[in-house]
Design goal:
mainly alpha
Length: 48
């Protein structure tokens, strides 16, 4: 979790909500801009 936090600058508690199981009461759907942000990070990291 800390690596994702360092790469994205999103607070760890927010990341926990986004990465929780979809059926959990803790789960929150990330906004479209957040999904795009993580998509770009994934693309960047997979290039190495």
């Amino acid at each position: 979790m800390s690596e994702i936090h360092e790469l994205s600058d999103y607070p760890p508690e927010t990341l926990k909500h986004w990465l929780a199981d979809e059926h959990s009461s803790r789960y929150q759907q990330p906004k479209e801009s957040v999904l795009n942000h993580f998509g770009l990070l994934d693309l960047y990291l997979s290039a190495f």
